[in-house]
Amino acid sequence: MKARLKFNKAGSMKFIGHLDIMRYFQKAFRRAGIDVAYSQGYSPHQLISFAAPLGVGLTSDGEYLDMQLNSTLPADEMLRLINEQLNEEIQVTSIKALSDESKNAMSIVAGADYKVSVKDGYYVCDDFTAKFAEFLANDNITIVKKTKKSEKEMDIKPFIYHHAFTLAEFNQEVGRNYEISVADEYENGAFVYMQLSTGSVDNLKPELVMDAFCQSIGVEYNKFAYQVHRMELYANDVTKEELEQGKRNLVPLEELGHELI
Amino acid sequence: MRKLALSDEILLTVEKPARYIGNEVNMVKKDLSNIDIRFCMCFPDVYEIGMSHLGIQILYDMFNRREDTYCERVYSPWTDLDKIMREQNIPLFALESQDPIKEFDFLGITLQYEMCYTNILQVLELSQIPIMTEDRTWDHPIVIGGGPCAYNPEPLAPFFDIFYIGEGETVYDQLLDVYKESRKNGESRTEFLQKAANIEGLYVPIFYDVTYNEDGTIKEFKPNRDDVPAVIKKQVEMHLSETTYPDKPLVPFIKVTQDRVVLEIQRGCIRGCRFCQAGMLYRPNRERRVDFLKDLAYKMLKNTGHEEISLSSLSSSDYSDLQELIYFLIDEFRSKGVNISLPSLRIDAFALDVMSKVQDVKKSSLTFAPEAGSQRLRNVIKKGLTEEQILTGARDAFLGGWNKVKLYFMLGLPTETEEDIEGIATLSDKIAREYYDAIPKENRKGRVAITASTSFFVPKPFTPFQWTRMATSEEFLDKQRFLNGKMKEQLNYRSIKYNWHEAELTLLEGVYARGDRKTAKVLYDAYKKGCLYDSWSEYFKYDVWMETFAENGIDPYFYTSRERSYDEVLPWDFIDAGVTKKYLMNEYEMAKSDQCTPNCREKCTGCGATKFGGGVCYESKA
Ligand code: SF4
Questions:
Q1: Per-residue pLDDT tens digits for A59-103
Q2: ipTM given for this complex
Q3: How far is B341 from chain A (nearest CA, A)?
Q4: Closest C-alpha to B243, from B558, B614, B620
Q5: C-alpha B284 to ligand 1 mean position (Å)
Q6: Which atom of ligand 1 has the smallest separation from the CA of B610?
């Protein structure tokens, strides 16, 4: 059967890249004695896959991993066994069962919530909040997207679904109930919450938004100045027809699963 | 949250930040307020290599079993971070606590190969510890070196406070106790070192002086005070199944060279190949009990989650219970998705059976290490592997479905002639013929693929070849070219691929393998001129090294290309490694007359290692 794990990533674990996190989990499952299914052949590997890979340097409360299991234990038991094998900077927060026909997490990601903070010791501008709000008030935000072959202009505004500067406001905007977080807190208080289009089709990275913001206020973009924290990953839970009509119904990936019994 | 020594910005700038953050699975955490001794263990090469080393894991585990001691780790920062640390004056730190190493009590550096010597100076300098032992005070850690290269510590003598000669299990506890005592009693650093020098197996270089003859050879090597021993005795652990072994080894986040559980099945080797230093240093051969190993394999896999297990030893086929052990590993773990990575085995029915069980026959290859191309030269080096054994082994494997063969040879062995070199090509060809002979055309799955690799022979201390001359780079290159030509003349040359090594690095390895204290200055100067990571060919600066030798008036060929006489004082003569000089001389003489001697199980040749009181030397008598 299939199961979906939600986990967070904080502290020094942000320096461990996506493939290494995968290997980290594989080893943790083995230590925990989780009955993960293996591929066939001479060098069998565990059947697990991640939703949207998180870049090095980013932290998260909303990472997902899908796995194929031969047998299961009660969810809280499994949670305990796995978390005992993980360090304090990476912990699994939920395990859900998936129906066999459900698509893997990677293919359904459609949106993500982020908190982007200016790190201590860095300065971007005075009145960060006001300037950022002003920046997002534009009807379109055109950036130049460079690929290996060409440069093309692109309006990223439609891919910024929501934003807010306080958690309460953001909760209301996105209809969620965020409370605790593994995100680092920075003293300067300059940060922004954003819900962005994510996934294989229209993937908007928060770094790109910050770059565009800096350009708009005439400040040089320093990629080290921001801590990007992912809060949640969403799937677009609509029918094919609705999708064609451009409808959007973002549901956190964990909610597509059901209780593991 | 753990505080890291490096800022986010630095960690996000350098390649593979996971090298510097620690916190790996099974990392030992201790409360510093209960600790008397802080020990930092260093492997002076990049993290991925250092983390793959079993010895460090053994010592890390052993030290941390002491309640009063916290052992942490450090590896050489890669060149990108090296630059940043120098620019920003960041002291090198230990992975566990992220604290500066200069605040530790001990810095232990493992000496695994000569080409990492400049990295040792890098570690000292980045740690902001004085590079020279004479400049250090109680404010600095005691810098101690161990491992195979400590058997000729002289090229590193000015940089180390202590060298540990032998296996770490034996006298470290004593040393740490003496240290605690000394600090408590307010003794001076020199007083402490004097006490350390009187622990068997420990060499404190500042207490010894060297004088030289006019021709540059050593006149005399002796203590400069009378309260330290004149001879340093190698330490060996005789009870390998009773010693500590890390049943919870560290598991790195990033892929390292040996990303698996490593089970050390025995130490030493009964074969006594004459070029092999490890085979001499780790005498006598001692096996671990198979039940001990089975239990360890189980625990280590459980505690690491590794998907692979391998066996470590010099000549695994000689381990008495090998079949039992390997079949156990296969039966017990294969179904749980654990890969059994096989040690190089003598190719026989057993080897072919296990290979077919654990490897994809189509992809895997057979490995032979004949080391020399002719039977005569194999006798000279005492490599007990006959052409017939190789050809039969290959034939059986071809019939079993294999068609890839890897062969390892050395160029520049003592007494080597063109005929011996040509032998490498003809042996490769004979193996190819064996394939076409054994497998009828219609059953062949493509061509046979033979890869022959040559490395260059470097004479090492405590081997019968310690007196021999090493070929020059030009000679090595000529040999290589000659062999390459001979390869092309073979009937099946299209089935044979010839791989070779770079010659220039070998010269340096040769100098530092048998160097004396004078070569330390060259090392220091070359490092100061930017030599670092010499074993990485992209960083190896041959010209700078040569220039530095010249500036110091030192001829590298004095150390490499010179046949030494038996009465010359060798830089490592003050070390008693168990094997006697008389035995080594006898073996060298036998080599010169193309003769083998029996291995330890066939017949004891009286090398001197019986004095350690156990292992293979006593097997037959038990
Ligand atoms: S004393 Fe004899 S048996 Fe023991 S290691 Fe030496 S040669 Fe081998």
A1: 999 999 999 999 999 999 999 999 999 999 999 999 999 988 888
A2: 0.94
A3: 11
A4: B614
A5: 6
A6: 1
